[in-house]
Amino acid sequence: MKAQIVGYTPNLSDKFRSAPSTNVADIAIKTSAVIKEVTVTGKKPYIEKKADRTVLNIENSATASAESAYEVLKKAPNINIDKDDNININGKQGVTVMINDRPTQLSGTDLANYLKGLQGSEIEKVEIINNPPSRYDAAGNTGIINIRTKRNFKPGFNGSINGGITYNGQVGGSGGINLNLRSGKTNVYASYNPGTYPGDNDIELKRKIFYNNQSWLLDQKNRIEWRYNANSFKTGVDYDINKKNTIGIMVSGYANSMDNSTSGTTNFLSNKPTADSSIYSNNPTDGTFRNMSYNFNYKSILDTTGKELNVDVDYARFDNNSDARNETYYYDATGIAIRDPKLLKSESPSDITIKSAKADYVHPFNKIFRLEAGAKVSAVETDNNLNYYIIQNSSETFDPSRSNHFVYKEDIAAGYLSLSYDKNSTSIKGGLRVEHTSSNGNSITMNKVVDRSYVDFFPTFFVQQKINENNTIGLSYNRRIDRPRYRDLNPFRFYLDEYTFMEGNPFLDPQYTNNISVNHSWKNMIFTEFTYTNTQDVMVQIVEQNDETKVGKQTMKNLESLNSFSLTNSINVSPTQWWRSNNNITAYYNSYKKADSNLDQTNSKLSVNISSSNSFILPKKYTLELMAFYQSPLAYGMFQIEDMYSINLGIQKSFMDGKARVKVSFDDIFNTMRNKASANYDNIHVWSHTKWSSQRIGINFSYRFGKTNMKPSRQRRSGLEDESNRVGSGRQ
User: Is 600 or 327 the better-scoring residue by pLDDT?
Assistant: First the structure.
């Protein structure tokens, strides 16, 4: 028989035989040890839904803490990473990725390499901000991902290295090293990420032309082969003046290059299956893209209530240069040359300078009300030259008819104010951002000047109500602006062949978007959101054509509007201890309207985007990853794009107490990714098919060393979050 009572140690009696009447000897029990204090610790859920963002508490997940930041994002709700490592939220590309409120100023593969070197053990949480509040620049309609690192002031040294190779018909590779040293009040950090990325595109383009009671078909087949070489770095130092004040200096940049070779044949067919004539084009291009960025930061915690001041001053310079050769050869139906070839050479240097200063202030009145205010000024100047030369008999003659010199200047002054309320189960946040923009685009060669000056107001509003422990609902509204990329304003012509070229549009207007959404979360596992978006002067790529010369050009233009309705469902579950699944399903209806003087045209489509990411924990520290993606047919601008899908597979092994990992990945296993599009509007009848080297196998190794519980580098939000994203780093 066992005797026990709270506060005493249990004890057993001697053995005895059970009978209807049995006497059992006394059982002695002793007082147990006195417990001085009991601490009950509660952990935040892995996924939290707040009024203006979704938060992933990485430090509360053993699985996520063992992964890189790149892998964490691949499995995050509503986030998808495509084959070129472009990150999108709810299917929208152009996401700004920040580390501790500071833009990384990287995109595509450059950003992916950086995130692969940032370990989950260094991350406190990831904030997914679909509709950014007033504190952030009003530019961009795709959202922000903010990665907040852990803060620990223990001295020491740590770092990580990673490297890998890929094969997609050509061999590529990438690597990276991240170092962090803290001693006393000083923290020094540095990172370097090199890589080489080869690839190819096979493009088939058909254009139907009707002119002078005749019809023509231009059948173009082009192959593009490229190799992109990247070298990016970042280094900085932070100094803690005291416990409340910190200053920091950071220098970052890249030196990238691109070798590109485009060759193709264009056949001209007139009401018969065989070509009347054809041209062959060969266009090798070499480009270099360099950047140096400097940031000074001052952060002050003004008192114990949470008042805070943050100041950033930034300067960045981008130097880009591209040299190309355009060769065109002419043949008749039998393949005999009918005229001398046309040989052109082009040089297109471009210099961009960005200056910025901003200040942010936070003032909590109490635990319920919180005020935020700030201001920012920025100045941008781009100087672009395009020089063409005609090559004859090995001599070069300057061609002024194709050459151009374009200078663009832009100044933006902004200020914002926001107030938040948070009590019990209700959260409310509202704000207003005001921006004044002044710009001047000057085509010196063509003697054309475009001046603009305008003031915009960007309100934001968020409300969230927790109904019970399992259900939370929310409502949000904001107004955003998307300014043209600098290269889209540049009126230079870049030729694919003699009958096809790309040209910028200095008259391109910014687009304005109003977003309103209603959302619901259940147990922080299933998230549902309905969104309506109206975009005025939406910027899209348009094809225009001269029927007489048969020359077609691609350019950016403003359509009248885009109306979009979307319903997104994100399901993040762990069916078992060894299976973690993140699934996103978005159904959306896009309707583009193109207004001309005589005719209004629309292009609409109901579409579905599905992505699924699954991790399976296997014995002996192996992990299997299976990812699937499907995009149904959709409308984009005036194009109808056919469906596409892919399946990716990966397996990784961790060892050395989780500090080292090896991963083998297989992208687009069935080689199904391609883009098929068609457009029929005005005098345009075009069909295209693009297949790229999406099928790829890769192997990657990563290793963490040094103290893993010390403070990571203090990376912050600079003043270049919008301006630098409009530059590009050479990767197409």
Answer: 327
Angle at CA 408, nearest 5°, toward 404 and 409? 160
564/637 Cα distance (integer angstroms): 12
Which amino acid, residue 94? Answer: G
Residues in CB range of 461: below 8 A, 6 or more apart: 429, 430, 431, 475, 476, 477, 478
| DSSP secondary structure letters along 403-470 | -EEEEEEEEEEEEEEEEEEEETTEEEEEEEEEEEEEEEEEETTTTEEEEEEEEEEEEEEEEEEE-SSS
Give, in order, the Cα–Cα distances in Å from 300 to each of 242, 247, 314, 330, 360: 10, 9, 18, 68, 11
Residue 716 has pLDDT above 70, yes or no: no
pLDDT in tens, 178-201: 899 999 899 999 989 899 999 999
Cβ-contact 94, 140 below 8 angstroms = yes
**Rounded to whole angstroms, how far apart are CA atoms 255 and 276?**
46
Dist. CA 478–CA 533, nearest whole Å? 10
CB 727 within 8 A of CB 113: no
Looking at the chain, how many residues does it have? 732
Structure tokens at 73: 């994002």
**Helix and strand counts by DSSP (H, E) for the chain:** 4, 45
* Exposure b/e, 32-46, CB count within 10 A at least 16 = b: eeeeeeeeeeeeeeb
Token pair listed for 264: 């193709």
Query: Rounded CA gap, 713 and 157, in Å?
Result: 11
CA distances to 9, 121, 224, 285, 693 from 203, in Å: 79, 43, 8, 17, 12
User: How many angstroms separate the CA atoms of 124 and 666, rounded?
Assistant: 30
SS3 content of the chain, % helix, strand, coil (to 5): 5, 65, 30
Residue 98: pLDDT over 90: no
Q: Which residue has the tokens 């590309």?
A: 93
What is the Cα–Cα distance from 75 to 70, expressed in whole angstroms?
9
What are 627-648's pLDDT values in tens digits? 998 999 999 999 999 999 999 9
Both structure tokens of 46: 């892995």
CA separation (Å) from 702 to 118, 119, 159, 163, 543? Answer: 10, 10, 11, 7, 45
**In 490-635, which residue ranges form alpha helices assigned H by DSSP?**
none
Q: What is the pTM of this model?
A: 0.82
Q: What is 47-726's CATH superfamily?
A: TonB-dependent receptor, beta-barrel domain (2.40.170.20)
Q: How many CB atoms lie within 10 A of CB 367?
A: 10
- Rounded distance, CA 676 to CA 674, Å? 7
Largest CA distance in the chain: 124
Q: How many CB atoms lie within 10 A of CB 221?
A: 15
Evaluate whether 102 touches 717 at the Cβ level (below 8 Å).
yes
